[in-house]
From TrEMBL, chain A:
Native organism: Nocardioides ganghwensis
Transmembrane segments: 41-64, 76-100, 257-284, 296-317
Keyword Heme recorded: no
CDD domains according to UniProt: ABC_6TM_exporters
Molecular function GO terms recorded: ABC-type oligopeptide transporter activity; ATP binding; ATP hydrolysis activity
Lipid bilayer topology: Multi-pass membrane protein
Domain ABC transporter: start-end pairs: 345-618
Keyword match Kinase: no
PANTHER family documented for this protein: ATP-BINDING CASSETTE SUB-FAMILY B MEMBER 10, MITOCHONDRIAL, ATP-DEPENDENT PERMEASE MDL1, MITOCHONDRIAL
Protein name from the UniProt record: ABC transporter ATP-binding protein
Keyword terms of this UniProt record: ATP-binding, Membrane, Nucleotide-binding, Transmembrane, Transmembrane helix
Gene3D superfamilies: ABC transporter type 1, transmembrane domain (1.20.1560.10), P-loop containing nucleotide triphosphate hydrolases (3.40.50.300)
Localization (cell): Cell membrane
Residues in ABC transmembrane type-1 domain copies: 44-325
Automatic annotation (TrEMBL), chain B:
Species: Nocardioides ganghwensis
InterPro entries recorded: AAA+_ATPase, ABC1_TM_dom, ABC1_TM_sf, ABC_transporter-like_ATP-bd, P-loop_NTPase, Type_1_exporter
TM annotation in the entry: 94-115, 135-153, 214-243
Region called Disordered, residue ranges: 1-35
Membrane topology term: Multi-pass membrane protein
Full protein name: ABC transporter ATP-binding protein
Length: 626, 645
């Protein structure tokens, strides 16, 4: 029997083994069927256990009534003890299966939830840098943080609905055989009682929505205050923004009170209707007892069932609601899960030689092996585009397509908008495949990168771009994420990147914790730890994009010298305009409009006007800020 | 070139490096069920795992109450006192709340009695029953009353809960706005963000719903017991005794469950954090070949979360075992006792019917009491994190001396973030009024710390930073802000009107003053073109400003503050190079006529300054004009040559 956490290998197995089969992403309904189908035996079993758990509610009033009739009114002690024993038995069965079904339902829920979480992580690493180009980060995360829970909840409500249905039908059978009039009243009353509240629910929901939106505005105000707290405490403004918050808090309170009053109306109406229904039931019942067609015990049974039927009906409504919500979640999940990596593995992959020359056709750049080449460009985007090409990364030239948006739109307009977005996603996917499908235009040792396995490319060429990120963990994990280095190698990397102060600031040294994304470090510290990690990885070809942009001149000078020293004999490309790097470059290349227009040594290139202008422009900008 | 740090910072490296083959697994093996053993052994192992999981939950809870980093957390007593005060200040509405809910619950309890009476009459009088219709009408009347009381009670509860909540959150934000400047400048805001979002949310749920519902449920339970006893003592006592059997189980559950839920919550935020990093760093993951490692990190988080879930599940199962019995068995007891008492003529059928209805109805409020206490405890844990913010001690006691003059002097400045680790070793610096002083030096040399001391953000460990003869940290904040301002990279645009965003330092500024400031930074034209002028709402989710406009707003704030001295930390970052040209004039207008300390990354900033201070290893090692330092042929000169050659 399955248990949580589920073992999955969807999209990405983490080993040489093939991933498990992809989910059915053709339609939201098909996806939900697939999710439920993954654990159909468990769900069926928990449905069964649910109906046994409900047994005391389903049979209790009937047994109680029979006991009153036969045992109390009839005066038979044997009958009384018999019925009482049966009632006790039913209660015990209910108690046992209450626990069993709770255990099972936690299991199906968490298998659903954790399974979806695993799938998101695996899809993200399977797609790599391609996913952020297509889907907004927020949406990927919300599939994990909220939609995954909907899939778990769906397994629970499904099992409960089946259980309640069994119990509803059983009770219907019992009451109809006792008295068809009263039975019918009971069966009809339940949906009426639930349905009567529906017209009241719409205004209630409207007010709740207003409350939610004001509360969420309030939360943004609080977050905003915290985000700008340094300014508020440094420059001032506490009163203004404190008062703004208080005002919004009061308006959220008013919305909450308005919603609460409607809630009170709904509950009062519920009390009224169910009370009147009970009275009607008893009043009719007493008439029948009078007429001799109903026994007192049976009347008590009806009283017991009186409000029971509301439960199943509520569950059915809940099932409908959660079903709709799951469909929405499924649609969002599909938008992530249906994506495929654009890369096609070459039929006969050629092994790359990292000690060969690197050549980019688009810019005309040739990087000689074993030396430090610095690429200078007036437009930073052009050098980073070049770095992307050298590492076989698709350019960041697409706008991610959200699934959600335009909340106000419903019906046909919404469907049209969705179809529009689906087409846009398909267009980007087709474009990616187009680009990934033919020769890449960059050769390493004479071999086009497209003719090698992508994993081989990643091993040979490491591009450390400006978006490089640190992960939460120890400093040791940050510098040596694979756990392959010796201590001496890690120390060396830290020294080369001149990041010793980061080590020094952590009392626990290598085991000092870095927060997520290196939050808590200054921009310059973060950049140097990233650099240390890249140096430690020691790839045959290392491409560093603006590696010291947030670092002061003293440190930059030191880093440039040390990187040049440690990388001697290995191919290194650095994009920057800082003279402190250019000093140490074996070869300098000037890019203009994305193509190489001049190259040589820094000292020689200073004679070239274009070059002088670019290198000196950093100077101009400094001036401008003064 | 020297290293910038006198000792070897990596001296302890060998001691703190760890062999990762010895890393513990995500969860210890004892938490996995044993394979291929008998039922008894499995049963024993299950309880052993449960105990281990409890220990883990206790640890997580203890750590959350006593965070190693971040802001403090207050104790439970502070939470009780806080809510005690809030309730005490609302005595009237609290009394109304109790009264109305008691009436609603009371009227609800009359109904079963009357229904029992109906059954009685039918049973005893057989045919030709008298007054059945009248009795039915009376019940309808009671039901009507009950509905009315329910409405009134719910309404009061909402008012009470919402009002309590609003006061609580406004108080919390108030304390955040009073946090000491030094702490705010130094600490990461991530923890505070979590507190004002997640913890306020959790507190809201328990204050808004939990407090009133707990009251209602308790009242209902109490009145139900009274009603049962009034109905028939003989029938009530045995049933109530059975109900009370679950008390120990409930007590155990209630002491353990909140910790379990807090632990579960913590594991889900961890899952979220890891995944967020994986998604945002997708390219880094791909570049470094970390895919398998990130997937494993995610699976490990899930594994840990699953253990927390199992702990909660077992706790609930134990509770259910007790509750399912305790809530259902009273029916059987009522039946048996009822039959016996009926045989003796002690009770009639109507009383048995009413007793049965009471017994069935009692489980709901009892369940609710347990649920609400549960929820309140989780809410209390969040509240204690929120109240912890109020426990941060103020970092200064403003004196009443006002500066006499504008000269800023630092003497023998030393400062340590960690005890025994001074980052400044006695810096003396006398600013010349109106000069531009550039501070350069390698990272970690203490130049940012120097900036913070010179702007009165932190109190130096020894020595003093004084303006006009008064210690900066002894000035009231309102005064300090108009003397010297620290300008960092941040140019946060607040959610609020344009005016709100500018008047920060002098909140009573006139519109003319605001316009004047906007004109000085060259923003008046576009602000006046905005839909509502100065009243236009800007900031996240409102009218969006371009980066250049946001920077102008940040500069206009400083114009309003009008300090005679500005400390610019990484000031070049304040202005994005792409917008530099448009902002050149704005920046010049701001700096005009003020003393400026610029902590600079780039050497050209230094080149154009009146004086340059080279900070190395917590000391000013060179001080003078560009030309003087070049002549000195020291650190600065070496660097300058490297830069320009």
């Amino acid at each position: 029997m399955q248990d949580f956490p589920p073992r999955t290998a969807t999209f990405f197995s983490g080993s040489d083994a093939a991933p498990s089969p992809d989910p059915d992403t053709r339609t939201p309904a098909a996806f939900l069927r697939w999710v439920l189908g993954q654990q159909k035996a468990l769900i069926a079993l928990s449905s069964l256990c649910y109906s046994l758990w409900f047994l005391p509610m389903t049979l209790g009033p009937w047994i109680f009534g029979r006991a009153v009739d036969d045992g109390i009114v009839g005066g038979s002690t044997a009958a009384l003890l018999g019925w009482a024993t049966l009632l006790l038995g039913v209660v015990l069965v209910g108690a046992v299966f209450g626990i069993v079904s709770h255990t099972l339902v936690v299991r199906t829920w968490l298998i659903g939830l954790y399974g979806a979480l695993e799938m998101v992580t695996r899809k993200v690493v399977q797609m790599g840098h391609v996913l952020p180009r297509r889907s907004p980060t927020g949406e990927v995360l919300s599939v994990a943080s909220s939609d995954s829970d909907e899939f778990g909840a769906l397994t629970e409500i499904l099992a409960r609905t089946v259980g309640q249905l069994v119990s509803y039908l059983t009770v219907a059978f019992i009451v109809l055989t006792m008295s068809w009039q009263l039975g019918l009243l009971t069966l009809v009353a339940a949906p009426v009682l639930v349905g009567a509240a529906l017209p009241l629910l719409r205004p209630l929901h409207r007010r709740q929505q207003l409350e939610r939106s004001r509360t969420s505005d309030l939360t943004s105000l609080a977050t905003d205050i915290v985000a700008g707290l340094r300014i508020l405490r440094g420059i001032g403004g506490e009163q203004t923004f404190g008062a703004n918050y208080d005002r919004q808090s009061q308006s959220a309170k008013e919305a909450g009170v308005a919603a609460g009053i409607w809630q009170a109306v709904v509950e009062a109406v519920g009390v009224l209707l169910s009370g009147i229904f009970l009275v009607a039931l008893v009043w009719l019942g007493t008439r029948q007892v009078e007429a001799g067609t109903l026994t007192v015990g049976e009347l008590i049974t009806f009283l017991g069932y009186g409000l029971f039927m509301v439960g199943p009906i509520r569950t059915f409504f809940e099932f409908a609601q959660k079903g709709v919500r799951s469909m929405v979640s499924a649609r969002k999940a599909i938008a992530i899960f249906e994506q495929r990596p654009p890369w096609r593995a070459p039929a006969e992959p050629v092994a790359l030689d990292g000690t060969g020359a690197l050549h980019d056709t688009t810019s005309g750049l040739t990087v000689q092996p074993g030396i430090l080449t610095v690429v200078v460009s007036a437009v930073p985007e052009q050098s980073s585009a070049l770095a992307d090409r050298l590492g076989r990364y698709l350019p960041a030239d697409t706008e991610p397509v959200p699934v959600d948006g335009d909340d106000g739109v419903r019906g046909r307009a919404a469907r049209r908008a969705r179809a529009e977005k689906a087409r846009e996603r398909a267009r980007i996917a087709a474009l990616d495949e187009e680009r990934a499908g033919h020769d890449w235009g960059v050769t390493l040792g004479g071999v086009d990168l497209a003719r090698a396995d992508l994993a081989d490319v990643r091993r040979q060429v490491l591009v450390s771009d400006t978006g490089s990120q640190l992960f939460a963990g120890t400093l040791q994990d940050a510098v040596d994420p694979h756990g392959r280095l010796t201590r001496e190698q890690a120390e060396h990397a830290l020294r080369v990147a001149n990041a010793e102060d980061v080590y020094d600031a952590l009392p626990e040294g290598w085991q000092g914790q870095l927060d997520e994304r290196g939050r808590g470090l200054s921009g310059g510290q973060r950049q140097r730890v990233v650099l240390a990690r890249a140096i430690a990885a020691d790839p045959p070809v290392l491409v560093l994009v603006e590696p010291t942009s947030a670092v002061d001149a003293h440190t930059e000078a030191r880093i440039a010298e040390r990187v040049a020293g440690t990388r001697r004999g290995r191919t290194t490309v650095v994009t920057t305009v800082s003279p402190l790097w250019l000093h140490h470059a074996d070869h300098v290349v000037l890019l203009h409009d994305g193509t190489v227009v001049a190259e040589g040594r820094h000292a020689d290139l200073l004679a070239v006007d274009d070059y002088r202008r670019v290198v000196a422009r950093a100077l101009d900008e400094e001036e401008a800020t003064r | 070139m020297s290293t910038g740090l006198s000792h070897d910072p990596l001296a302890t490296s060998a001691a703190t490096w760890r062999d990762r083959t010895e890393d513990p697994p995500a969860i210890p093996d004892e938490l996995r069920p044993p394979q291929g053993v008998g039922v008894r052994e499995r049963h024993r192992a299950l309880w052993q795992r449960h105990a281990l999981r409890r220990q883990r939950a206790e640890d997580v809870y203890a750590a959350s109450r006593n965070p190693a980093r971040g802001w403090p957390v207050s104790g439970n007593r502070a939470v009780l006192a806080f809510f005690g005060d809030l309730v005490r200040s609302r005595k009237k509405s609290f009394a109304l709340l109790v009264a109305l809910n008691a009436l609603a619950a009371g009227s609800a309890l009359v109904v079963p009695r009357l229904l029992g009476e109906l059954v009685n009459r039918v049973q005893t009088q057989g045919a030709a029953v008298e007054g059945l219709d009248t009795l039915a009408l009376v019940v309808v009347g009671v039901v009507l009353l009950q509905a009315l009381f329910t409405f009134g009670a719910q309404r009061t509860s909402t008012h009470f809960g919402q009002d309590l909540l609003a006061s609580a959150r406004e108080y919390i934000v108030g304390t955040i706005l009073r946090l000491p400047v030094g702490r705010v400048e130094g600490a990461s805001t991530g923890d505070l963000v979590t507190r004002v979002t997640r913890d306020v949310g959790t507190m809201a749920r328990s204050v808004q719903w939990g407090v009133p519902r707990l009251l209602i449920s308790l009242l209902t339970v109490l009145l139900s017991v009274v009603a049962m006893l009034l109905n028939s003592v003989v029938l009530a006592v045995p049933a109530l005794l059975v109900f009370s059997l679950c008390t120990p189980a409930v007590r155990t559950y209630l002491t353990r469950a909140p910790k379990a839920y807090i632990t579960e919550g913590a594991t889900y935020s961890r899952i979220n954090t890891t995944l967020t990093e994986t998604v945002e760093g997708a390219r880094t993951v791909e570049a470094l070949g970390l895919s398998a490692a990130r997937v494993r990190a995610g699976s490990d988080d899930i594994e840990v979360s699953a253990q927390a879930e199992r702990y909660g599940m077992t706790l609930r199962n134990v509770l259910f075992a007790a509750l399912n019995g305790a809530f259902q068995v009273p029916q059987v007891v009522t039946l048996l006792v009822g039959a016996y008492a009926y045989g003796r003529g002690w009770v009639d059928l109507g009383q048995i019917t009413a007793a049965m209805l009471y017994v069935v109805a009692l489980s709901e409020p009892l369940d609710a009491v347990i649920g609400e206490v549960d929820r309140l405890q989780v809410g209390a844990a969040s509240t204690s994190r929120l109240l912890g913010i109020a426990e941060v001690q103020p970092d200064r006691e403003p004196g009443d001396r006002l500066p006499d003059g504008v000269e800023l002097v630092g003497e023998d400045l030393r400062f340590a973030y960690r005890e025994g680790h001074d980052v400044l070793h006695g810096v003396d610096l006398r600013l010349r009024t109106g000069e531009r002083l550039a501070v350069v030096g390698p990272s970690g040399s203490g130049k940012s710390t120097l900036g913070r001391l010179l702007s009165g953000i932190n109190r130096p460990r020894t020595g003093s930073a004084r303006v006009g003869g008064v210690d900066l940290v002894d000035l009231p904040l309102e005064v300090l802000r108009t003397e010297v301002a620290l300008v960092t990279q941040e140019h946060h645009v607040f959610i609020g009107t344009v005016r709100d965003n500018i008047v920060l330092a002098r909140e009573d500024s006139s519109d003319d003053a605001v316009r004047e400031a906007l004109r000085a930074v060259g923003s008046l034209a576009w602000v006046e073109r905005l839909p509502d002028g100065l009243d236009t709402m800007i900031g996240s989710g409102r009218f969006a400003l371009t980066p250049a406009q946001a920077q102008q707003v940040a500069l206009a704030r400083l114009i309003i503050a009008d300090p005679h001295t500005l400390v610019l930390d990484e000031a070049t970052s304040l202005i994005d190079p792409r917008t530099a040209r448009t902002l050149e004039g704005s920046m010049n207008n701001l700096l005009e006529g003020r003393t400026v300390v610029a902590i600079a990354h780039r050497l050209h900033t230094a080149h154009d300054a009146d004086r340059i201070a080279v900070v190395m290893d917590g000391l000013v090692v060179e001080l003078g004009s560009h030309d003087e330092l070049i002549d000195l042929d020291g650190e600065y000169a070496a660097l300058w040559r490297a830069w320009t050659s």
